[in-house]
Amino acid sequence: MNIKKINLHHIAIIMDGNGRWAQKRGKIRTLGHKEGFKTVKKIIKFSIEKKIKILTLYAFSTENWKRPRLEVIELMNLFLFALKKEIKNINKYNIQLKIIGNVDSFSKNLKNYIYQSEKITSNNTGLILNIAANYGGRWDILEGIKKIILAIEKGDLKVSQIKEKKFSQYLSTANLLPVDLVIRTGGEKRISNFLLWEIAYSELYFTDILWPDFSVLDFEEAINFFISRKRRFGKIR
């Protein structure tokens, strides 16, 4: 499979089904999140092998704070654990790590590790790995609007300069290629406030497979679905 020939550069994944995976096995939901972390590592490795340029993973939405308090605490602990444990490997494999979302709501310790991890990998030239944490598409668009208003007030930007490309530069995904393929596991068929601006012309792939069970073969099937699509971007072939 030649990724360059099929113009697949940016894949975004809504990793859904961790909690249900655990509950189906009579386990607590947090164990599902830990199992899902193993899947994340496999998908990242496969993306590197296939020379995918950008992988964006939806880890924690702005709405996820509404979950039971203990589950949220465990998710934060898992995020911190993952950064501590994997940052050496991330750097070793030339991955550039970006955390997109409102990190101000995180603990001081977690924010420090996020900052350090991004700094350590900032000059890497391989896979760009975006982790969407405390992220919401509406939040991102509103933040972008606020930044534009400030730029206009300072005299750095004119209203006449605001085009789609210019607006994109004020989002968390600034300077990244548009999303080509969105994958959602877990059986739900909705976007859930994920990358609302960036996925305007993305292909959408939904599967009933719960995230911890999502394999490399399943990932390849999603890519084959993308290959089968005729992308017209509003034009007529």
What does this protein structure show overall?
The protein is an alpha/beta fold. It has one domain (10-136, 177-228): Decaprenyl diphosphate synthase-like (Undecaprenyl pyrophosphate synthetase, 3-Layer(aba) Sandwich), CATH 3.40.1180. It is built from 7 helices and 6 strands. The longest helix has 24 residues, at 69-92. The two termini are 25 Å apart. One of its GO terms (biological process) is regulation of cell shape. It comes from Buchnera aphidicola. Belongs to the UPP synthase family. It catalyses: 8 isopentenyl diphosphate + (2E,6E)-farnesyl diphosphate = di-trans,octa-cis-undecaprenyl diphosphate + 8 diphosphate.
Describe, in short, the structure shown.
The protein is built from 7 helices and 6 strands; from the N terminus they run E-H-H-E-H-E-H-E-H-H-E-E-H. It is α/β, with parallel strands linked by helices and 237 residues long.
